[in-house]
């Protein structure tokens, strides 16, 4: 079991509140990823779970035990650090063994455990080497082995792949996913790479400035972001957010509410929309084109501002002036605080608002 | 290396020599600087090595040979028996034993006091830690000439004059050592300690298994400096002893000069060599650790 619950957690460094009244439940056996920009408090959150930092307020529960004040070694939590934090004066074997000795595991058992783990992470040939003689990927494996061998309830990984080159990172990503499946242990994983988050996590927690913006599955985050921050954090390019003041947007309840801005994903904008599609027409001028082979990305300037469009398997447009259509049901509305206004959005299968007829709303180019 | 590789390399190097920029002003300047640097270092080596060579040379001469001018560097007939004569000119075994006991005793005592003190100063913030460390640092600035009298009186009242303990106790701890060791403990990345805490290591285990091994180069350097300075120390043993009981090698050597009517330089130098050789041997083995202590960087 490895269910973690954070209840009303706050953390102050001096007078600076880094984590603000955070509530979070991490399911047992989940692969939970904390993402967010640098300095948003991801590491601090992890360190409080591990017991390396004490929270200023609130309670942390692991399973049915409140672990406030429990030292890190007794929390049944293992951590993998960004810089691996291998003990430089010990060889690989001793690095892995250290935690077991401290847990008073008998020698025979230690030997067996270490042998097994070395095979799992593919380190059997390196047991006598010092960390300084290993490559980045091998050090990463040692760090993993050292954490795994303790058979913890919870694995905590703080940007474990950020020191690896792109290829190795990809490989380790896959290995970590497989490892999680095999162990079934709770993984709490920090990254600021949204691709890593989307591909690895089954639960993603988006943080900003010490506050959770949204915690949900990757697909929910993509399809149903809770606010502008979450909407823009997931997806490349980010979701386009444009002001809506001058716009009469159709809304499900007819009322305009206080829609301050609207958004749509670059991949939902269409260059050649069939006439039957009801949507927002945006005229604009193409500023840049990027072709990545299967997909093309355009930066387009309109009178509302700049936005990007992503197309798949379509030839690159050479037009300068274009009209882009975004189906109404692909529009997201936000209020002036950046929160989603779900109740006024138009979704497939719903009647489009009656008061404002769904005539095409058109926006001129920003020329 | 295969023949082909060799050929390629040869061609590359010949091409390099032909390239015009090889002879540009910058390159020449660099070359001159490098040469000056090497000459400078050679000069330094000479300054330090010459007296040493002189000592060895003299220790193998006969007494008349030491007086020849211009001096001869290599004696015609090396007088190995000078060493035996030096050794037998006084209770040198006794001095040697005293030196080992005192320098060794100081070393052990210093390790016992320095390591925990440096560890505490490096790792913990406790009430008064700043002021206490300030006190330690201040003691560095007090010259020993200033305190030898009070120490002498103190030891005298404890009846510790002419005892080994009396020569050891004043050096039971070393502010310089504490300072240096604290620095090297502080260099251990916080993450390593955190990893150890997650590995359920108690504080003493973190100290013994993690911090001390990582500070090993610094420890060896400190130990070496301590041992050498007390092994060679002349002043304190001279002041704190009035008879032979606790006298050390440097005092014994100085006595060779006093007792003989004429200064027997060759015997004196032979005795000096006896004094220095143990240190040279230790240095030889510790050399790599010392260099490491000054260029230490942790594994990323
Ligand atoms: N020991 C500390 N003392 C004071 N402030 C700290 C301390 N540790 C972290 N902070 C502050 O807390 C905030 C959150 O830091 P944290 O390390 O949790 O960010 P992060 O989300 O992990 O960022 P990154 O992605 O760069 O690792 C930052 O503003 C940082 O300056
Ligand atoms: Mg961090």
Automatic annotation (TrEMBL), chain A:
SMART domains: AAA. It comes from the Bacteria. It comes from Paenibacillus lactis. Keywords: ATP-binding, Cell membrane, Membrane, Nucleotide-binding, Translocase, Transport. This is Sn-glycerol 3-phosphate transport system ATP-binding protein. Gene3D superfamilies: 2.40.50.100, P-loop containing nucleotide triphosphate hydrolases. Pfam families: ABC_tran. Residues 4-234 form the ABC transporter domain. GO terms for molecular function: ATP binding.
UniProtKB/TrEMBL annotation, chain B:
Keywords: Cell membrane, Membrane, Transmembrane, Transmembrane helix, Transport. The keyword Transit peptide does not apply. It comes from the Bacteria. Residues 96-286 form the ABC transmembrane type-1 domain. InterPro entries: MetI-like, MetI-like_sf. It is a multi-pass membrane protein. The chain crosses the membrane at residues 35-56, 95-119, 131-153, 165-185, 206-228, 267-286. It is found in: Cell membrane. Belongs to the binding-protein-dependent transport system permease family. This is Sn-glycerol 3-phosphate transport system permease protein.
């Amino acid at each position: 079991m490895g269910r973690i619950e954070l209840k009303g957690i706050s953390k102050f460094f001096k007078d600076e509140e880094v984590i603000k009244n955070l509530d979070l439940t991490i399911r047992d056996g989940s692969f939970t990823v904390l993402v967010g920009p640098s300095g948003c408090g991801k590491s601090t959150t992890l360190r409080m779970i591990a017991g390396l930092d004490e929270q200023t307020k609130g309670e942390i529960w692991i399973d049915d035990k409140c672990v406030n004040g429990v030292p890190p070694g007794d929390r049944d939590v293992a951590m993998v650090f960004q810089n691996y934090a291998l003990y430089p004066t010990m060889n690989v074997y001793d690095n892995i063994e250290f935690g077991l000795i401290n847990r008073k595991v008998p020698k025979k058992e230690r030997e067996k455990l270490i042998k097994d783990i070395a095979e799992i992470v593919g380190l059997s040939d390196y047991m006598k080497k010092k960390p300084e003689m290993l490559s980045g990927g091998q050090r990463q494996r040692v760090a993993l082995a050292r954490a795994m061998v303790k058979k913890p309830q919870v694995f905590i990984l703080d940007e474990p792949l950020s020191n690896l080159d792109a290829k190795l990172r990809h490989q380790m990503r896959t290995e970590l996913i497989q490892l999680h499946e095999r162990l079934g242990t709770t993984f709490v994983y920090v990254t600021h790479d949204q691709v890593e988050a989307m591909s690895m996590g089954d639960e993603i927690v988006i943080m900003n400035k010490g506050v959770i913006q949204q915690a949900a599955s990757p697909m929910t985050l993509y399809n149903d972001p809770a606010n502008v921050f979450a909407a823009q954090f997931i997806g490349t390019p980010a979701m386009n957010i444009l002001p809506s003041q001058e716009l009469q947007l159709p809304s499900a309840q007819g009322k305009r509410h206080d829609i301050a801005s609207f958004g749509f994903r670059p991949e939902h904008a269409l260059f050649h929309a069939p006439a039957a599609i009801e949507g927002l027409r945006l005229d604009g001028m193409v500023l840049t084109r990027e072709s990545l082979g299967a997909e093309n990305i355009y930066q387009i300037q309109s009178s509302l501002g700049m936005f990007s469009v992503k197309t798949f398997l379509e030839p690159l447009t050479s037009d300068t002036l274009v009209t882009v259509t975004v189906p109404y049901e692909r529009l997201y509305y936000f209020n002036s605080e950046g929160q989603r206004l779900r109740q006024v959005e138009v979704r497939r299968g719903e009647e489009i608002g009656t008061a404002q007829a769904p005539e095409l709303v058109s926006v001129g180019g920003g020329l | 290396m295969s023949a082909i590789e060799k050929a390629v390399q040869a061609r590359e190097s010949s091409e390099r020599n032909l390239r015009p920029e090889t002879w540009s002003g910058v390159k020449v300047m660099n070359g001159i600087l490098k040469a000056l640097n090497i000459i400078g270092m050679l000069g330094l080596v000479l300054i330090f090595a010459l007296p040493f060579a002189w000592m060895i040379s003299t220790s193998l001469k006969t007494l008349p040979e030491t007086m020849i001018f211009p001096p001869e560097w290599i004696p015609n007939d090396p007088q190995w028996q000078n060493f035996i004569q030096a050794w037998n000119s006084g209770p040198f075994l006794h001095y040697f034993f005293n030196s080992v006991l005192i320098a060794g005793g100081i070393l052990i005592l210093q390790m016992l006091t320095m390591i925990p003190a440096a560890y505490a100063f490096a790792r913990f913030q406790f009430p008064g830690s700043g002021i206490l460390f300030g006190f330690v640092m201040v003691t560095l600035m007090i010259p020993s000439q200033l305190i030898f009298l009070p120490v002498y009186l103190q030891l005298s009242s404890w009846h510790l004059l002419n005892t080994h303990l009396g020569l050891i106790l004043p050096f039971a701890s070393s502010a310089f050592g504490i300072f240096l060791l604290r620095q090297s403990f502080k260099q251990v990345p916080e993450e390593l300690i955190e990893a150890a805490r997650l590995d359920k290591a108690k504080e003493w285990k973190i100290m013994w298994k993690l911090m001390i091994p990582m500070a090993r180069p610094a420890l060896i350097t400190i130990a070496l400096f301590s041992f050498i300075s007390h092994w060679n120390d002349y002043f304190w043993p001279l002041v704190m002893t009035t008879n032979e009981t606790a006298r050390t090698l440097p005092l014994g050597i100085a006595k060779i000069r006093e007792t003989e009517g004429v200064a027997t330089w060759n015997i004196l130098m032979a005795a000096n060599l006896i004094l220095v050789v143990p240190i040279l041997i230790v240095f030889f083995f510790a050399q790599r650790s010392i260099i490491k202590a000054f260029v230490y960087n942790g594994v990323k």
